[in-house]
Amino acid sequence: MKILYLIPARGGSKGLPGKNIKKLNGKSLINHSIDFARNFASDDTICLSTDNIDIIDCALQNNYKVFLLIVRMGRPISTLL
Questions:
Q1: Strand locations in the chain, DSSP E?
Q2: Is 75 a residue whose pLDDT tops 70?
């Protein structure tokens, strides 16, 4: 049995808009989270779940998997990018 490491990254922060793609020491916060997860797991067991295109772009530029959460008529529909 494999363990899936899921990193949820909502795009709708009210306190600090766009916080997941803001840079800290030259790297986005979401990339810091994924790199931290890589200390414990391989890429095939790390999955980023988000509803924000900017977070998706940031992750895909760094060859990370993204589990896209799409809400349609109040029901989530998801896909793996």
A1: 5-9, 23-24, 27-28, 46-50, 66-72, 75-80
A2: no
Query: What SS3 class is residue 35?
Result: helix
CA neighbours closer than 13 Å in the CB half-sphere of residue 29:
14
Structure tokens at 60: 């895909």
What is the pLDDT at residue 72?
54
Q: Name the residue among 81, 54, 77, 44 with its Cα closest to residue 66.
A: 81
Q: In what helix (H) or strand (E) does residue 55 lie, and over which residues does it extend?
A: helix 53-61
Beta-bridged to residue 79, according to DSSP, are 68
- Mean pLDDT across the stretch 55-80? 68
Structure tokens given for 9: 């990254």
Which phi and psi angles does 33 have, rounded to 5°?
A: -65, -45
